[in-house]
Amino acid sequence: MSRRSGILEFAVLGLLRESPMHGYELRKRLNTSLGVFRAFSYGTLYPCLKTLVANGWLIEESGSTPEDALTATLAGRRAKIVYRLTAEGKDHFEELLAQTGPDAYEDEHFAARFAFFGQTSRDVRMRVLEGRRSRLEERLEKMRASLARTRERLDDYTLELQRHGMESVEREVRWLNELIESERAGRDIKSSASEGSAQQNNTSGETGGLPRHRDSTRPDPSDDTAT
C-alpha cells in the first residue's frame, strides 16, 4: 500500500466514523471540508472504498427508499450506495489514531491526523505535535545551511523563493509551539486561537501590518548599531 492510499483510507474511516455517507458526499468532504488533500477523483476513491469493504471495515447499504430504488432500476441507474463503518472498522481506525510513527509527521499525513485530533487522545496528540515540530526544525536547519552555501550563486528571485519557504516553515513551528503549550496547559484550542488572533491584531496595529521578516545575516537599517 502506498503512503498516499494509506492516508486516504485513514481519512475515509475517520469521516465515516462521524456518520455514514455515500461516495459523492465523501469525495466532497475529502476535497473541500476536510481541507487535507488535493482533488480526488472517483477513480481514486471507489477502489479505496472497495478495499475497505473487502477488509470488513465498511459495509455497503442502499441509501434509497424502495420507490427511489425502483425508479433508478427502471432508468438504468445504479441505486445510491451508502457506506457505513463496521465495529471492526471502528477498532481499526482507533488503532490508526494511536500510531505516532515517523509517517505521522510528514506533510499530508500530519494534516490528515490533525483533522481528526478531536477524536484523538491528548497524549497521542502531544507525541504527533512534538514529532512534527522536530521534523520541521530539522528541515529548517537544512534549508538555512543550503541557503548559506548557495546564497552568492542565486539570483534575487530564487533567493526570495527560498526565504519564502523558510518563513513558511518558521510560521508553522511557531504555530506548533502554541498548540503544544495549549495541550500541556489543558487549554481548549478555540480559546488559544482567539488569544493568538487578538495578539496578532494588536501587533498588526502597532506596526501598520504584518511583521516584516528580515534576513538575520544582513544589518537592519533601523538598528542604530548597524554600520
Automatic annotation (TrEMBL):
<dbReference type="InterPro" id="IPR052509">
    <property type="entry name" value="Metal_resp_DNA-bind_regulator"/>
</dbReference>
<protein>
    <submittedName>
        <fullName>PadR family transcriptional regulator</fullName>
    </submittedName>
</protein>
<feature type="compositionally biased region" description="Polar residues">
    <location>
        <begin position="191"/>
        <end position="205"/>
    </location>
</feature>
<dbReference type="InterPro" id="IPR036388">
    <property type="entry name" value="WH-like_DNA-bd_sf"/>
</dbReference>
<feature type="domain" description="Transcription regulator PadR N-terminal">
    <location>
        <begin position="12"/>
        <end position="94"/>
    </location>
</feature>
<dbReference type="InterPro" id="IPR036390">
    <property type="entry name" value="WH_DNA-bd_sf"/>
</dbReference>
<feature type="compositionally biased region" description="Basic and acidic residues">
    <location>
        <begin position="212"/>
        <end position="221"/>
    </location>
</feature>
<dbReference type="InterPro" id="IPR005149">
    <property type="entry name" value="Tscrpt_reg_PadR_N"/>
</dbReference>
<feature type="region of interest" description="Disordered">
    <location>
        <begin position="185"/>
        <end position="227"/>
    </location>
</feature>
<keyword id="KW-0175">Coiled coil</keyword>
<dbReference type="Pfam" id="PF03551">
    <property type="entry name" value="PadR"/>
</dbReference>
<feature type="coiled-coil region">
    <location>
        <begin position="126"/>
        <end position="167"/>
    </location>
</feature>
